[in-house]
Amino acid sequence: MEISWKDFEKVEMRIGTITEVSDFPEAKNPAYKMLIDFGEDVGKRKTSAQITKRYKKEELLGRQIVAVVNFPKKQIANIMSECLVLGAVGEENDIVLLNPDFSVENGLRVG
Predict the structure, then answer these.
(1) Which phi-psi region, left, alpha or beta, contains residue 10 (left: φ > 0; alpha: ψ -120 to 50)?
(2) Where is the TRNA-binding domain (predicted)?
(3) Using one digit for the tens of pLDDT, what is the confidence trace for 2-15?
(4) Nearest to 35, CA basis, from 25, 23, 47, 52
(5) Which domains does the chain have, with CATH numbers?
């Protein structure tokens, strides 16, 4: 399905830094709960991600990632997810996070 440039511009992808990571035993599938700092304009957002196959909690702290920040909030088990972390999804739900090559300012828009 082809989309227009105008449609693409509606998706607000931003760079954020993971500041908190914890186990999420209430989730249906293995996942972590995370708090991500998107800078002054967007602020900090909660979310969860099924990335336990490839990442340990300690490896995620301080890591910059790419996330969509303008989706509606979504209830996932006992938390309200406020953004969608982006990653490449391989076989058996093996997810590799998208991130900038160099450290950049939190909140920068991806486009």
Answers:
(1) alpha
(2) 7-111
(3) 999 999 999 999 99
(4) 47
(5) 5-99 (2.40.50.140)
